[in-house]
Amino acid sequence: MLKIQVNNIALDYEDHGKGNVLLLLHGLGSTKKDWDAQVPFFSKTHRVITVDLRGHGASTKPQDAYGVELMTEDVKQLLDQLNIKKATLVGFSMGGAIAFEMAATHPEYLENLVIVNSGPDFNNMGKIGEDLLDKRTTFLETKGLEALAKEISFNMFPEDHQIDLRNEFETRCKNNDYNAYYKSFVTLMDWGLGDKIKDISARTLVVASDMDYTPIVFKEAYVNRMQNATLAVIKNSRHGVVLDQPDAFNLELQNFLKQ
């Protein structure tokens, strides 16, 4: 594990391989271990950087400083500190929001953009978003983080053969600092790109699972608003596609990078 000082915090990151840079951004309440099935595969051909975002894993957990914009600035400063001029940003779930924000505010850093089971407007998802915000905050406040970790993990990995994935993700999730998780979540649900999505010109791959929380038509709608985006759907997969269908995901990303 490596530490780097950015934006008044310390980020914990790993750096593997050589070549064009892939920067992999994990989901809410998780860590860089979301990418354990991608690092060995892609580090054969690329320089692969994974990072614990602020409030997560072994990175600093501020009391109040959270939000997609702050996390995006962290990522920009990380790239600056490592003297990386261009990278393909791959963002899963909350990491997708950060990748979107980076593409909108600092497009000069992007070689490509890859969005995985995420969206550009967490603050404008209609009833799905309203229910998620209400139910998860109520669940957290009444039952606690450990119970929430168990529920989220089961919903992501409900199959009998996924027990190891379920247990590993549950452990990562319940090990979160409560305040850091709560503030990361509520600030995420307050974030959105709005019309700025139309200005993103980076070549973009959007990866959707057929059994994700949000339907495929949700992803199709924003892909159609973008200048240079394509959609890939991975079957027999839920929200955590990088974990539950790593071979299929890796193939889609590899093909996109080769084009």
The CATH superfamily label reads Alpha/Beta hydrolase fold, catalytic domain
Q: What's the total count of β strands?
A: 8
**Average pLDDT:** 96
Domain count, please report it.
1
Strand content: 15-25%
Major sheet attributes: 8 strands, mixed
GO molecular function: hydrolase activity
Domain AB hydrolase-1: 20-177
InterPro entries: AB_hydrolase_1, AB_hydrolase_fold, AB_hydrolase_sf
Protein name: Alpha/beta hydrolase
Describe the overall structure.
- By secondary structure, the chain is an alpha/beta fold.
- It has one domain: 3-Layer(aba) Sandwich (Rossmann fold), CATH 3.40.50.1820.
- The protein has an eight-stranded mixed β-sheet with strand order 1-2-4-3-5-6-7-8, sandwiched between helices.
- Helix 2 packs across helix 3 and helix 4 crosses helix 5.
- The longest helix is centred in the middle third of the chain and has 17 residues.
- It is globular and about 45 Å long.
- The relative contact order is 0.15.
